[in-house]
Amino acid sequence: MLDQARPYALLLARIALGVIFLIHGAQKFLTGVDKTAAFFESSGIPLAGVAAPAVATLEVVGGIALILGAALPVFGVLLALVMLGAIVFVHLANGFSVGEGGYEFVLALAAGTLAVAFSGGGALAVDTLWQRRRQPATV
Q1: Which of 61, 66, 96, 123 is the least buried, fewest Cβ under 10 Å from its Cβ?
Q2: How far apart are CA 106 and CA 78, in angstroms?
Q3: Which residues have CB under 8 Å from 82's CB, separation 6+?
Q4: Could you tell me which residues come within 8 angstroms of residue 11 by beta carbon, excluding any fewer than 6 positions away?
Q5: CA gyration radius for the chain?
Q6: Is the whole model's pTM more than 0.90, yes or no?
């Protein structure tokens, strides 16, 4: 029974994580990448003017990739690295609790993204569908 449910649980996790990243990236564009860059600079993030649009773009594209289940290992690692940067530069000094600006939520996003990225993505993942299509037919 667990084996039958696993692909659908991964699909739901993949979509939920993808939507979170997509919305956070879109918010950076909608509120203005210059404001995001200013926040990055105030947080001590190096090359804030380059990092802000890069992170916003990665969150949008990576979020879409998670939703689709495409290039999961690549985007999973990249998004987890962005979350690691958020922990180090923004949240670590605030402790663990998300209610106090801590790293709890960002750590969960990083861990969840890595888990989904290296699981095959579950049902309807483009990566899985692509692999099946590329495999030679067995006789």
Answers
A1: 96
A2: 14
A3: 55, 58, 59
A4: 69, 121, 122, 123, 124, 125
A5: 17
A6: yes
Quote the pLDDT of residue 130: 82
Measured CA to CA, the distance from residue 35 to residue 39 in angstroms comes to: 6
Eight-class DSSP state of 96: S
d(CA 136, CA 122): 21
Q: Which residue has the tokens 């918010």?
A: 27
Q: How far is Cα 35 from Cα 8, in angstroms, rounded to an integer?
A: 38
95 in helix, strand or coil? coil
DSSP letter assigned to residue 125: -
Tokens 């030679």 -> residue: 136
DSSP string, 26-58: HHHHHH-HHHHHHHHHHTT-TTHHHHHHHHHHH
Q: What is the mean pLDDT of the segment spanning 81-85? A: 98
